[in-house]
Each structure stands twice: as structure tokens, then as C-alpha cells.
């Protein structure tokens, strides 16, 4: 059985709001959420955003840390129960 992340994009035409992609990595354990995050960030254009959903405790720290270390902006971080959401803007 193959487990792949779920990607979605939100198109915001004629708007100054950046294009946002969503990565649902819930149910996967590190290093997979970080791996999928890095892979998707590499595909984005500067200024585009990625919303990552995870419920892995380790990923709650490693994804924001990796993002900052690589010069990306953490736009928002939220926790809701066991789920964690981080929005990253590519720089």
C-alpha cells in the first residue's frame, strides 16, 4: 500500500493574496511530513504559500525550524487538538 500526501491549490485570480497550496500529511510520521513539505516548497514560486497539516509531534517543531533555516517565512502556526497547521511563504 502506498501512502501519498494530499495536495490542493487555491487559485486567487486578480488578487494580491498569494497562491496557496495545501499539503495534508496527517497520519504520516517524521521524516515524511518534512520530506513532503520540502518537496512541495521546491516546486513553488517565490511568494506562494504552502499550508501543511500534520498530527506528528516531531513535525510540529521540525517543519517551522527547517522553513526558517532555509529563509522561508512562517505566516501562521495553529494547533487544534492533535492537528497542527503551519503556513509557509516561499522566499
From TrEMBL:
Residues 23-47 form the UPF0033 domain. CDD domains: SirA_YedF_YeeD (cd00291). SUPFAM superfamilies: SirA-like. Belongs to the sulfur carrier protein TusA family. This is UPF0033 domain-containing protein.
Amino acid at each position: 500500500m502506498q501512502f501519498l500526501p494530499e495536495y490542493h491549490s487555491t487559485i486567487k485570480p486578480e488578487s494580491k493574496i498569494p497562491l496557496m497550496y495545501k499539503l495534508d500529511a496527517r497520519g504520516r510520521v517524521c521524516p515524511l511530513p518534512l520530506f513532503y513539505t520540502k518537496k512541495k516548497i521546491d516546486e513553488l514560486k517565490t511568494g506562494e504559500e504552502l499550508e501543511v497539516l500534520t498530527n506528528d509531534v516531531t513535525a510540529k517543531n521540525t517543519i517551522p525550524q527547517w522553513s526558517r533555516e532555509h529563509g522561508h517565512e512562517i505566516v501562521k502556526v495553529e494547533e487544534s487538538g492533535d492537528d497542527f497547521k503551519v503556513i509557509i511563504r516561499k522566499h
